[in-house]
Specification:
The longest helix has 27 residues. The chain folds into 2 domains: 130 residues, 2-Layer Sandwich (Nucleotidyltransferase, domain 5), CATH 3.30.420.40; 169 residues, Nucleotidyltransferase, domain 5. The strands form 2 sheets. It has a 5-stranded mixed sheet with strand order 3-2-1-4-5, sandwiched between helices. By secondary structure, it is α/β, with parallel strands linked by helices. The chain is built from 10 helices and 10 strands.
Length: 338
């Protein structure tokens, strides 16, 4: 089964063609990073307009690269939640038009489910059940993946997402958008013990996380140095910050893994590209003798392939949408509506 998958939840327009959920025929992405870098972050209205400009020629390019015709498409999968509502609507309306024109099923896909499914592409041997840490700019979740379309949240952040903190700290330090990657690169040259930064705890909810205190402490360190005229060791602050985030994520993830009794851990989302977090998980999972599944860097960020992968399993589960499909800015991973 060949699925055309469409992703437009934020600032990446992506169209992919995926066969049977695991084989990516092509994955075309039109990035808006350079445009939004001028503003230090994503401007929703601009993102929506750029999606409208890019999506049709990108779909044509995907077909051309894959060497298939429109008649060979068996279904259309699309991200419909969560994300920037205007951006989502561009993808949803385009997907509805394609599905209607070709007479094929329209498959609604939850964006976070898509991130988890990126691991199916990277690791063909991975099958549920397993634990997945989803860590991105907008979400930090510990998910019990019981089946391809059955999920249970075990822990989450009570305030800021880890990725949002990376980007905000990097932005205050003058790094270009997207800041998380720049901060990670800078941290390689720093001393991760130089700055004492807090690790948040949520009393009574041992698997939940908090990053707002860490973000505030890091920003205060930057501002205090500026006010006193002191030279800030930027590399070491980046390293210390990365260490503190990892010290929040790793113990809670390992605790959730032990609670489920699984021997398989997957990590998904943009922050899964962070080298410190990847290395710490690799070390800890090796110590435990469990299996770790990490998507390559190109599948950590938003892409169409992950939507096509999850779309295949949503299709097998009988999930279809009609021409009334709407987009939703927020939606729990296990409580779908369309």
């Amino acid at each position: 089964m060949i699925i055309m998958a469409i992703e437009s939840s934020c600032d990446e327009t992506a169209v992919s063609l995926v066969e049977n959920g695991r084989h990516v025929l092509t994955d075309c992405i039109a990035s808006q990073v350079e445009l939004h870098r001028l503003y230090g972050g994503v401007v929703p209205e601009i993102a929506s307009r750029k999606h409208m400009e890019a999506i049709f020629p990108l779909a044509e390019e995907a077909l051309k690269r894959a060497g298939i015709t429109r008649e060979q498409i068996d279904g259309v999968a699309v991200t419909y939640a969560p994300g920037l509502i205007g951006a989502l609507l561009v993808g949803v309306n385009f997907a509805k038009g394609v599905a209607q024109a070709l007479g094929v099923p329209l498959i609604p896909v939850h964006h976070i489910r898509g991130h988890i499914a990126a691991n199916y592409i990277a690791c063909p041997e991975l099958e549920p059940p397993f634990l997945c840490l989803v860590v991105s700019g907008g979400h930090t979740l510990l998910v019990d993946v019981r089946d391809y379309t059955e999920f249970r949240i075990l822990g989450t952040t009570r305030d800021d997402a880890a990725g949002e903190c990376f980007d905000k700290v990097a932005r205050v330090m003058g790094m270009p958008y997207p800041g998380g990657a720049a901060l990670d690169k800078m941290a390689h040259d720093g001393d991760d013990t130089k700055y004492a930064l807090p690790v948040g705890h949520v009393t009574g909810s041992e698997l939940d996380m908090s990053f707002s205190g860490l973000k505030t402490a890091t920003l205060n360190t930057i501002h205090n140095a500026q006010q006193r005229g002191e030279t800030l060791d930027v590399a070491s602050l980046c390293a210390s910050f990365s260490r503190a985030v990892s010290r929040t994520l790793v113990p809670r993830t390992i605790g959730a893994l032990e609670r489920t009794g699984y021997q398989k851990l997957a990590i998904a989302g943009g922050v899964a590209a962070n080298s410190r977090i990847r290395a710490d998980f690799e070390s800890e999972i090796e110590r435990m003798g469990a299996q770790l599944f990490l998507p390559p860097l190109n599948l950590c960020g938003d892409n169409g392939a992950m939507i096509g992968a999850q779309g295949y399993y949503e299709y097998l589960a009988g999930r279809r949408a009609d021409q009334t499909l709407n987009a939703f800015a927020t939606m729990p991973i296990g409580d779908l509506k369309y």
